[in-house]
Specification:
This protein is mainly β and about 525 residues long. Strand 22 and strand 23 form a beta hairpin. The chain is flat and about 85 Å long.
Length: about 525
Amino acid sequence: MADMPVYLVEIDLLDPDGDPLTVCLATLGYNTKPGDTPPNRHYAERIADPGSFSQFLYGAGGTIGQSEPGYGEIVISNADGQMGWLLDCAMDGRPLRIKRLASQRAAFSSAVTVLAGKAEAPQSADMWRSISIGIYNRMLDLDAPLQSERYAGTTVTADGSYEGNEDLKETVKPLVFGRVRNIEPPLVNAHQWLYQVSASAVSSIVAYDGGSPRNPAGDFPSVAAALSASALYGRVATCNAQGIARFVGNAGAQPRYSFTTDVTEGGTLAARYPGAIARRMLAKAAVDSGDIDTAAFDALDTAAPWEAGIHIDSDEKRLSAISRLLASAGAYLIPTALGVFTTGLLAFGTRVATYDIDDPEKANAAGITLNPDSANGVPPWRIVVQYQPVYRVLDKSNVAGCVDAETKAFLATEWREVADEDTALRALHPRSEELVFQTLLDKTADAQAYLAYLRALYGVDRVLTSIRVPYDEAAAIGSTVTLQIPRQFFATGRDMIVISREDDFGDDMVTMGLWG
């Protein structure tokens, strides 16, 4: 009989007396040796189910949409009642680790950490039999508004403050990352004509009144310095450090139309690529730098060096905002099994494994789904990329008469578009439809580069299937594998991308979702 793998579970907690303790349990009893680190540690044979972990690059079963991982429960045997004391322990939010050994005889140094996370509070549906401990979903750290700062509504005089009047009280302060166009900032001090484009520092602010550029009066290190500046009426002084624009002058110099701004955050072009922006957004979301896969975000910017930007003035959740930004490059955001946020593109790379399967059971019945992300499962004959959004669309009544026709047309339309059409494909597939991708890219050339990437991905027939393999044989999510089955699409082998992994530690098996 082949050796069975052993799963070791370590849970850091406070015992009923409030003292710190690491509880060590296993699917099969295991002891570390005197020379191991830690030495002479006993892992009691108490784990009935070591749990599971699921990853999806995008929405489950597809290649579009935001990811949502899945976590199973760790089930501890308690038939003899000896583990009931765990229910009185404080472990919620504290670290837990699941490690895998090839067998009971394997050296402790060979143990591989397959999941590092945090525990939820213990519970029991049947105290006579078991105790279960949920594994904290790391995506919950992003289930809160990205911007929590709100205006106090206390600015009632010309005192240099910028907390807005009563009308702005409790409204969300705006945030800008990257480059955005024609946003309408709130008037945060009506007595001194102060507008706030972002509650964090920016690199530049270009102001307009009804689409007509207002001459700059310089940038100043503080709002007080901008207020003290001597400048011609109607010019705009800025304090980039506070995201403030000041309309210089009295009531007679106030904007006649809609006051809007183009804003740039990020001092270099590379700082405005999707990966770089997403890292700053994760930092804003209070994600520790050690929990961000810096190399993966840098690699994304190498693959998609495209200028982008996002303006937030609502309670939009962290995950939604970051995913929306990354979608501008077709990128995903997922937490790894070790709790680190990583990213990447849906792309075919170097083959890492070949699965040659001639047994239907091994192929998990080898069900085939036509591409779930295009209408009717066939390639789209037309792909559209929308880019360079105008955040404040202006009709004729809000545009100055001196503005040229081209700028008026630009301001009247929310999105620019580039498109790729394949009429031959439409003739081949009469039910083929168009696929539209809305992005936060700023440049036409970048939108065209993204369009070419999308056509390569979606312009040919794609299918989705899954296979179930032993844990040791599973490929990493996002990698490219070849699937060969003596049926239909796979008879001669077909390159597929692993778009999902469902790791079942209890069965020591992995179900991989494959797209290609």
